[in-house]
Backbone:
């Protein structure tokens, strides 16, 4: 709760922190089989990914986000069996990144800015893959890390 | 080794063989070539 003393804001707003989300800290799994794999080429050497690679595999994380404007960044892997890396926050799509590449490319970064939260509260952060490049062999989700931070 | 599989129905376990990384493949290849070089040195 924001506190005011003589009309001056003295405390921070909830949700002003810089969030780093890791997929293994999911709240629920909507579809698919997910597991940890380790590989020295990965950022921090580990990933939580959908072994099934099926269309619409999905996990849901939860986080409190205050009303405001945000940027989001993912670190992910491109490969031949990777689909679009899609993230919805509070029911609105924030990020949709094609993860296909014929040869594996590790630790790729995608960033989106200017995403708004209109009402403070605990939000569903849905991570899924509903589409893929025509050349991709599966709907793999290969997100190593999600960062969310408030800019306004 | 075993690893956990997470689904909406819960957690199970399966036998799992980690994939080799490109670096690990190269290291094996180098070791193999080094071993061959040693053998050829021995049999000179």
Residues:
């Amino acid at each position: 709760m924001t506190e005011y003393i003589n009309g001056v804001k003295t405390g921070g707003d909830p949700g002003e922190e810089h969030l780093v989300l890791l997929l293994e800290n999911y709240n629920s799994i909507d579809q698919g089989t997910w597991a940890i794999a380790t590989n020295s080429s990965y950022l921090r050497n580990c990933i939580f990914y959908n072994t099934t690679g099926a269309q619409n595999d999905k996990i849901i994380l939860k986080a409190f986000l205050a009303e405001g404007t945000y940027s989001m960044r993912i670190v992910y892997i491109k490969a031949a069996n990777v689909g679009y890396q899609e993230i919805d926050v509070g029911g609105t799509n924030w990020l949709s990144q094609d993860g296909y590449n014929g040869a594996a490319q590790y630790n790729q970064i995608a960033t989106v800015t200017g995403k708004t939260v209109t009402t403070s509260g605990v939000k569903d952060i849905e991570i899924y893959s509903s589409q893929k490049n025509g050349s991709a062999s599966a709907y793999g989700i290969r997100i190593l890390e999600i960062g969310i931070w408030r800019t306004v | 080794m075993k690893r956990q599989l997470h689904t909406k129905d819960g957690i199970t376990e399966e036998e799992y063989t980690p994939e080799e990384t490109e670096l690990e493949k190269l290291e094996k290849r180098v070791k193999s070539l080094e071993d061959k070089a040693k053998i050829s040195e021995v049999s000179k």
Remarks:
- The helical segments of chain B are 22-42.
- Strands of chain B lie at 2-7, 10-15.
- The first helix of chain B runs from residue 22 to 42.
